[in-house]
Amino acid sequence: MKINKSNEVDILIKTPVKLEPEEPITYNIKNNSNVIYIIDPYGFVGESYWLLNNKKLVPIQFSRGYYSRENDDCRNDLIIIKPNEKIEKALSLNYMEKAIYDYSQSGNYIRIVSSNHSKQNSMPSSCKQYINDLELKGYRFLNDSIVAKIPFVK
Fold it and tell me: Which of 24, 37, 45, 47 is such that its CA lies 20 to 30 A from the CA of 120?
């Protein structure tokens, strides 16, 4: 299932996804262009929530704190995808989501996501200098959006 809008880069997920709250969800990312793209795995920001049997789940609590990055973190975190390359990586589809949910009930889970990936978002801006250096070498930061209803199974 393709979850992003870009034609240059595809972000794909095999559905239904096995619901394992302790495991990161990985996505297949395919660069369909002749450009080297930069993707920040924490660079998607927007709105997201969960449905259980078509009813919105209420969070049981919210996580605190945030992830702070330095230049070395930027080099390690940012995804560099070469032309026509396909890779598998974990992404946060909405970095600002801090809700923690109870997934103990059986039923049909769906994650609703609407988010954008741009340099103006808070996490990519923490790597501004490193991104600028890469862009001077011809790399392009991915400007993209995700609008998806992702089915999960227990």
Answer: 24
- The per-residue pLDDT for range 87-139, each reduced to its tens digit, is 999 999 998 888 999 999 999 999 999 999 998 886 777 888 999 999 999 99
11 class by beta-carbon count within 10 Å (0-12 exposed, 13-18 middle, 19+ buried): buried
Question: Which residues lie across from 146 on neighbouring strands?
Answer: 4, 115
Q: What is the model's pTM? A: 0.91
H or E segment and range at residue 131 = helix 128-136
pLDDT of 66 reads 63
Dihedral sign computed on CA atoms, order 48, 5, 142, 19: positive
Strand partners, 86: 30
Q: What are phi and psi of 76, to 5 degrees?
A: -80, -35
> Encoding tokens for residue 83?
């032309």
Cβ atoms of residues 52 and 107 within 8 Å: yes
Question: Which of 152, 153, 148, 146 lies closest to 9 in space, CA to CA?
Answer: 146
- Taking phi first (over 0 means left), then psi (-120 to 50 degrees means alpha), and beta for anything else, what does residue 48 get? beta
